[in-house]
From TrEMBL:
Residues 334-448 are annotated as: Disordered. Residues 496-673 form the VWFA domain. Keywords: ATP-binding, Nucleotide-binding. This is Mg-protoporphyrin IX chelatase. Residues 402-412 have a biased composition (Low complexity). It comes from Streptomyces asoensis. SUPFAM superfamilies: P-loop containing nucleoside triphosphate hydrolases, vWA-like. The keyword Nucleotide-binding applies. Residues 357-376 have a biased composition (Basic and acidic residues). Belongs to the Mg-chelatase subunits D/I family. Pfam families: AAA_lid_2, Mg_chelatase, VWA_2. Residues 334-347 have a biased composition (Acidic residues). The lineage of its organism: Bacteria, Bacillati, Actinomycetota, Actinomycetes, Kitasatosporales.
Amino acid sequence: MSTPFPFTAVVGQDDLRLALLLNAVSPAVGGVLVRGEKGTAKSTAVRALSALMPALDVVTGCRFSCDPGSPDPACPDGPHEPGAFETRPARMVELPVGASEDRLVGALDIERALAEGVKAFEPGLLADAHRGILYVDEVNLLHDHLVDLLLDAAAMGASYVEREGVSVRHAARFLLVGTMNPEEGELRPQLLDRFGLTVEVTASREPDQRVEVVRRRLAYDDDPDAFAARWADEEGAVRRRIVAARELLPSVRLGDGALRQIAATCAAFEVDGMRADIVMARTAVALAAWAGRTDVLAEDVRQAALLALPHRRRRNPFDAPGLDEDKLDETLEQFGGQDDEDPDPDPDGPGGGDGGEPPRSDGDGPRGEDDARSEPGEGAEGAEGPGNAADGTPQEGGSGAGERSAAPAAEPFRTKVLSVPGIGEGATGRRSRARTEHGRTTGARRPRGTLTKLHLAATVTAAAPHQRERGRTGRGLVVRRDDLRQATREGREGNLVLFVVDASGSMAARQRMGAVKGAVLSLLLDAYQRRDKVGLVTFRGTSADVALPPTSSVDAAAVRLESLPTGGRTPLAAGLLRAHDVLRVERLRDPARRALVVVVTDGRATGGPEPVALAGRAARLFAAEGIASVVVDCESGPVRLGLAGRLAGELGGTAVTLEELRADSIAGLVRDVQGTSRRTA
């Protein structure tokens, strides 16, 4: 086994290390979700934590790591006789992104269960992680049903496996740590709420700190054992402090004043439900124990809020997680000092010293006011010069002829369901019909590889005609492996939704472009909820650009959309051809994921020789390949040419107006995108 990088040798990342240590002290806090860009020591810190966890006493031979002092009475390997136990390090179990449900929760031997009535159970990763750490890298890329199973087990402290009337339950209490890069997609708000704490990590911008990171990493790579030995004393001190904090934890008092501050803070930030209050309370208690105190102070409540609330304040996937610290301090001050916690708080505590806000003045005068007065002047003479917007894009009358500044998006709305016709086999989602591991049972087939979902009736039907020749004498059914049948199920899949957005001069009226952006933003919200991948192609002037390659991060698409400038000619053919290239490459990467192309345009085509004919030929490429498509018709005014509808016909799809796109439109409840297969049926 390779020597892990020492936890105490991680440079910076104070919030990350504190959150991990608090969960080591009190696993009831509920785990940690670590969000951040790649290369920020997320995985290194998590793996290093396992070496600090205290050793465990486990029942000898128990596959479920039962505590010999209080063994699980329902343990599948029990009942355990008192006495025999062994001591081993706490485990850190990693859940890979591509893991199956059986690998996570364990699997029953269905053949033996049916033929012999024996609960032959092979434990999964949840059993391995009991009383240790379960680490999920890229947790945002896990299938939703696996995340649900994982978080349910973490909340209940037990895992249940149920197959065709055969049930197995075992204890599953672990420290849950998930890491993710938000650029690759977000977790649903319901799942975010199930993680106790969250931490945002970024790479330091301080040269000295970056130098130290590189120096330590190179030293570790040269000789891991020698590097770990140099940090052994610090590691031992932290390990002893964790043990001491665990012992002190039951003695920590959470006073009424601290509870009022917790409740007031959660109410002030309008978090949903009561989980935030409970997590904050447990975190504040753990903070006090980690500090060696038996009373929870206001500084503990403040730090608990900074760790437990940011991810619970998001109302939609485009909201950046965060907390207004000024508002937090005002709330704590308003509801503080109402019990006997600390009559004379430390002046270097919350709001002062290293942990508080920077001072508003330097003692000579109100520098903050001077700075505020100077900001408009600096901006006016800087990037926001004549003819430029705040983001530096030319405005009308500026240096960029024919280009206009980005228009803000209109308020998003709930859209109709746009789905791909037919039945796919792509990644689990919520948009189009597909054969999936979860959903309603539609039939049975012979299993390909490991049996995962038994079709009981089909299995019995297959075994019944052979009972006499197999020598059946008793009541039990003689079942062979060839008799087993896999249930085929139909559910929903996520698709690749590729937006092709016209940003030309014909769309450049700010009110009109704002409505268009609002519609695309609405569709992006819908794509987020339906677990789609999204991409964004824009066209204007003389060319088309891939503003966002296909990704699971719909908030990245929203950012690119918001800053989209408009102006110039309408190279519709170039936009369609670029979208076709994007789909061709994506099919090589993920052939099972079907595409839905959403073209947002008024249908006009200008620039170059025969622009309308070129656009028609480009559109017919999509129709020939049966790519599902929909055209969002943005044409406005009393006189309409119907060009978007004509384009939809060339694509082999349908056209909807901005008004018809709304879910509450009287045009209908659900609109399926027409594909080539439906036209030729």
